[in-house]
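User: tokens in, sequence out, please.
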């Protein structure tokens, strides 16, 4: 479990079918400003025609014009909120249609191979989406409606992405091997690179959200608020405390606005451009996107995709239940929820519950996973781990290994040994190879499907 397997993993917290990342790296993340402060309107892009029609057929299964329009609306909305320039509408429609065709073919393969997702996992994914947006499920559904998105369709999207994640893990992971020679070559290539494509950034972020349709005066007031936050940060106030107090971004209350180290191309282009000339520890000028005003601090900046000498390590423990014929996933989730309730109420000890119930090698140690570097755990596990404060216990989390309950014990700054740096380099290379393997596999699945194009989507 403590090997980071790939970027395919379920991070049950993101908007279904996002198109801005490679599919292999997609999760299920709802935009931070989903429906916040918006009137309940139905977007033109998702309004059905008087009569829907078929635009393509994939192995006898239709793709409808309404499916294309609904996905197109979500994509345009997400790009706008991230401040990313939109391609032409014709290019977008073609991209969306091809993505839907590819997904249909993969979902059909998943069904043929008996891949299934319990309804309880869809419930859990929906709850996680709501929790990351710092709202409850009823409020999430209200905001979905305000954005013109049907709850049933949103849950179908979650279910489909869960199915695809499981299928991709099973089909792709066996294809990827990383040798010591691969690691040596990767390190040489990365260390010799000065291209922005190999730039990695760790940013801290404060968002002052601007509601869609806000009046000019309201925008000016929010801009002034963001500028005051920026000036306080420049005056030396603690950025993490400012983020917890002022940021509207999900998770800011627990992570102090820290986004985490990632390749520059996984940040919005606006963020990369704004911090291009900013040194480590510095602050950018105020940034405006479709979501609002952003204050950015450069925590770390390095070239070559290699880990730096210093990093933050996390010591955590977990309880793992592996669903089987006797214990279904829904029952495992319910059992861990009960454990969390007892732990939070002080009625049970996490370590004792782990020793008695956890189904992995850490059980005799009370679930203790030891000190871990970034990248040691699978993405779906690490995403939740990074959102927890010391002493905090997560909600149940589903990974490819089973259902987990995680508790962070402490964090510390540490200096990496050469071996640890090679281990992280191996994980980075594995992720790159998995993305490449996914692309090849997706093309294979798409190539085997019979696709008939009908009327062009509108």
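Assistant: Sequence out:
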């Amino acid at each position: 479990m403590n090997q980071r397997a790939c970027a395919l993993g379920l991070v049950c917290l993101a908007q279904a079918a996002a198109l801005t990342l490679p599919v292999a790296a997609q999760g299920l993340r709802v935009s931070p400003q989903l429906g916040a402060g918006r009137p309940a309107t139905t977007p033109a892009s998702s309004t059905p025609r008087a009569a829907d029609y078929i635009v393509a057929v994939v192995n006898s299964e239709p793709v409808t014009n309404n499916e294309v329009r609904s996905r197109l609306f979500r994509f345009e909305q997400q790009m706008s909120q991230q401040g990313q320039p939109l391609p032409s509408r014709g290019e977008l429609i073609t991209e969306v249609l091809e993505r839907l065709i590819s997904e249909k073919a993969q979902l059909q393969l998943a069904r043929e191979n008996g891949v299934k997702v319990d309804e309880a996992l869809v419930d859990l994914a929906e709850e996680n989406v709501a929790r990351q947006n710092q709202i409850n499920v009823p409020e999430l559904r209200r905001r979905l409606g305000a954005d013109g998105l049907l709850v049933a369709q949103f849950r179908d999207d979650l279910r489909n992405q869960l199915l695809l994640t499981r299928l991709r893990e099973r089909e792709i992971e066996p294809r990827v091997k990383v040798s010591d020679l691969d690691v040596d070559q990767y390190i040489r290539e990365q260390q010799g690179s000065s291209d922005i494509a190999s730039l990695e950034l760790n940013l801290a972020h404060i968002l002052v959200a601007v509601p869609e349709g806000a009046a000019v005066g309201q925008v000016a007031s929010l801009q002034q608020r963001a500028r005051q936050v920026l000036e306080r940060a420049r005056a030396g106030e603690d950025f993490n405390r400012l983020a917890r107090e002022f940021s509207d971004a999900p998770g800011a209350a627990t992570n102090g606005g820290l986004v985490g180290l990632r390749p520059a191309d996984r940040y919005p282009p606006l963020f990369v451009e704004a911090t291009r000339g900013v040194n480590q520890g510095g602050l950018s000028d105020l940034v405006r996107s479709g979501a609002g005003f952003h204050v950015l601090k450069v925590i770390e900046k390095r070239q070559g995709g290699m880990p730096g000498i210093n990093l933050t390590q996390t010591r955590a423990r977990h309880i793992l239940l592996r669903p089987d014929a006797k214990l279904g996933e829904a029952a495992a989730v319910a059992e861990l929820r009960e454990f969390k309730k007892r732990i939070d109420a002080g009625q049970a000890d996490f370590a004792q519950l782990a020793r008695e119930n956890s189904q992995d090698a850490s059980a005799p140690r009370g679930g203790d996973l030891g000190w871990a570097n970034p990248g040691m755990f699978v993405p779906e596990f690490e995403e939740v781990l990074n959102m927890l404060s010391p002493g905090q216990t997560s909600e149940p989390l589903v990974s490819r290994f089973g259902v987990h309950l995680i508790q962070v014990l402490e964090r510390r700054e540490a200096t990496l040994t050469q071996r640890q740096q090679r281990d992280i380099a191996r994980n980075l290379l594995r992720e790159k190879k998995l993305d490449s393997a996914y692309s090849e596999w997706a093309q294979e699945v798409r190539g085997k499907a019979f696709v008939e194009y009908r009327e062009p989507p509108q």
